Amino acid sequence: MNVKQISLFAALAAALALSGCQRNELEVGNSGVKEVNTQFVFNVATSSARTKQAADAVQEGESPSFRGITDAKLMTYVLDQDGQILKADATAPKVYDLAQLVPAGTGPRRVVEMSLPLQTNTLLLYGRAPQGGAKDVFTAYDYYGHLDKYEVKETVGSANFQLGKRLQDATGFYAMEKLIAGILTVIMNTSMTAADVKSAITAGGFAVGEEEEFSQLWWSMYYKPDQEADSGMSPVESGKHQYPLEERLGHLYREMVNIRYVQDGATELRAGSGEATLRIVQDLWSVINAVRCAAPLSRAETVAKAFAEKVSERLGIYFSYESLPTNGSPVTGVNFKSVSEIAAHLIGGEYNNQTYSADVYWPDNAAALACMPTSGEITAIGTKLPKEFPDNYNSMRGAAYMNFDQDNYYFYYPKYFNTSEVGGIPGDADEGYSAESYYYPAELLYFGNSPLRTSALEHVTADYPESVADWKNETKWSAEKDGKADWTGTHVMSTTHSVAMKYPIRYGVSMLETKVGYSSEVLGYANPHLKDNNHAVQNRLAGGDLNADDEPDREIAVGDGSFLLTGIVVGGQTQNVGWDFLPISDPVAGKKITGFIYDKAVTSQQVKKDNGSGFTPNYTVVFDNYSAGGYGSRNPGDFGQDKVYVALEFQNKTGVDFYGNFNLIRNDGYFYLIGELDPTKSEAFSFEDGFEIPPYLYDGGTYVGIPRVFMQDYKTSVTFKFGPNSLKYAYLTVPDLRASSLTLGLSVDIKWKQGLEYEEVFLGGN
What we know:
The chain is of the alpha+beta class. The protein folds into three domains: 3-165 and 444-507, no CATH class; 171-352 and 362-435, no CATH class; 510-762, no CATH class. The protein is 19% helix and 24% strand. The protein is built from 16 helices and 37 strands. Strands 1, 2, 3, 4, 5, 6, 7, 18, 19 and 20 form a ten-stranded antiparallel beta sheet that branches. Strands 17, 24, 26, 27, 29 and 32 form a six-stranded mixed beta sheet that branches. α4 packs across α12 and α7 (244-257) runs parallel beside α9 (299-318).
C-alpha cells in the first residue's frame, strides 16, 4: 500500500479546501493582482493512539498520532491550462506564509481566512511536522529527524531542503581522533636503549658477551627484526629464532599495526571508537601483563620481560585499570584517564621535546610527530570523554576508522574513506566520504501539487469529504447543492465561493521500514547457528597455506537476543532536494553532495527466531533517491536507478567472540552488516492511479512513473535476514590480540507496499 493510504488515511485525511464567504474583489499591495477573499479549510483526522518504536514520529500505523503541520507555505499559480499540476520551475504570483497551519491534536478541520488571486488554477503546499521534545533516551533530532535548511521561496526552483549534518563540532571530533591515535602511537613506539637491554640481561642473571653490541630496541623489531630481516628471528640474540615471550610481543605488534590491505586498495575497517579502543587496550595489556609476569628462560626472554614492563608503564600513563594482577592474569576495568592527564604527557612535559633523545618514547620521525594533537586541539576537545567517542559528537561508531602508517610508524584516522563497504558511491572522486557525510533522518515533510475544483456555491466545513477515499471519489463532488450544479469550475473567478485542491496532500519524503530475522535455512538447523569467518582469517594470517579442512569456521549458536539492532545506516542519500523533493546540487558547493542517513533512534531490539515476523518495525524517514542521470529506458524493471545499500548496526550478545570479514567481533562489541536494495530485482509494479509523483515525465501525454528504492510518499518495507554465512561479512572489527599464534553480509527479503516486491536474496554468497 502507498504510505498515504496506510499512514495518512487517518492522520491527514488528504483534504485541502478553500471556501468563499464574500465575492468582492480587492487590490492587494502594489502587485496589481486582483484577489477574492476566501476561507482556507484544512481537514485532519487525529488519533491519540500510539504504535511502538518510532511509529508515532512518522505517523505510521492504523491509528497514527497526527503531529500537526508547521512552517506551511501555500503558493498560487496561473497555468496555461486548467486541470494541470506544476511540472517545472515557475515563479508564484502569491506566496502565503501560513506558519503553524495545524497544531498537533487539532482537528478534524480548521478554517483560515485568506484571499486568492483571480484565475488561479494550481496550488502548491509545503509543510513540516513540528519537532516536539526529546523522546525517551533520544534527542528530538534523532527521533523526529532534522533539516539544516527548509527554504521555500516564490521561485519554485529556489526551494532547498537539506538534511541535517550530524557532525557540528568537526574541530573537536578530529582533535579527539588525534588524541586516541596519538596514545596508541607512542605506546607502539615504546623502545629500550642499548644500556637498558644490557641492564635487563645482567639483572636476569645472564652475561653480556663482550663481542655483542646492542642498538636501540624498538617494539617493531619483534615483528621485523632490524626493520628488514625475516620476522620470527630474535632481535636480541643474533641468528636465533624467537623465544616464546618474544613471539608474544611480535604477535601483539603484528596484530596492532597490520591493518590489512586487500584487492583494489581497500583496507580492513579497523574499529576506532572509544569503546573499541578500550577493548583493544584491555586485550593488549592482558598479554603484556602475562609477559611481564613470566619467568624468562633465556637472555632474550629476560629482555622481552623487561620490555613488557616498560610497555605496561606506558599504558599506565594513559589508562586506568581496576586490577593489574601480578600473577600474569588478565587486566580488568581499563578506562581512559582524563584528557588533561593524557595531554600532560602527550603534548607537553618530559616526553614532548619534539627531538630524538636517549630515553626514546616518541617515534623518531617528523611525520609521526606531526600527527600528535596540539594544545589548541586539546582545548577543542573540552570536557568530552574519549570513552564516548564518537557518540559524543552525534556520530555513529562506524564513522571512526583507524589505520596505521607502515612507513612512519603512527596511527591515524583517515579523514576521507571509500565507504563502498557501507554502500553508495564516493562523495567526491578525489576524497570520498568523511565523518561529516552522516546526516540525521529527514523530517516529516508534506507536499501538495494540485489543480483546483471551484464552486459558485457557499459551503460549510462539514460539506467537504473527510477521508482520502472520499476526497478522490468524483461522485462526492458531482452532486447538486440546493438544486444547483456544484463544483463545476477549475479556476478562481470573481463568482467563486469555494475552492478545493483536487489532489490530496502527500508526504514529500519516503520511509524505510526495517525488520530483522534469521533465514529459513538458519532456523532449519537442529541447533540454529551461523558460521563465522575463522578459516579465511587464519588462512590469511598463515599466508594462504591452510588446507580447506584446516581451521574450519566456527559455528556460532544463535537464538532470541543473540544480536541487538542498535542503528540503521542508509546509503546513497543526496543532502539537498529541491521544489519537487528530488535530489539537487548544493547551491554553495555547486555539486550533488551524497552521504548517509544514520538513524540511532532504535530501541535495542532482539533478533528472534520467528523469521522476522515478530520484530517491531523501525521507521526511518529518508529523501527520494531518484537519479536523473540513470533514466535511460522505459522498459519495466530497467529504469537505470541506483541500488541502495543499508548497513545495520548490531551488538554481539552471543556470549562469544567470532571472526568477521577481517578480524574479531568481541562479545558485547558492535559490528555492521550490509543489505543491497536493487530496484530492478522486483516483481511487477504499478504506481497508484490518479496521482503523479516527481519526476513529472510523460510519453504521449501518459505519465511515466520511474520506480526506485525510495519514492516520496511510499514506504519501502525490508526484512533483513541473517543467512548462514552473514557473519563472514561483519565489520568493524578489532585485532585478535589474545590468540597465540565490507562486503555484503545480509540475506534480504524486501517488499514494497504497492511498490517493488523482492523475494529472499542471500548476499555475500553461501
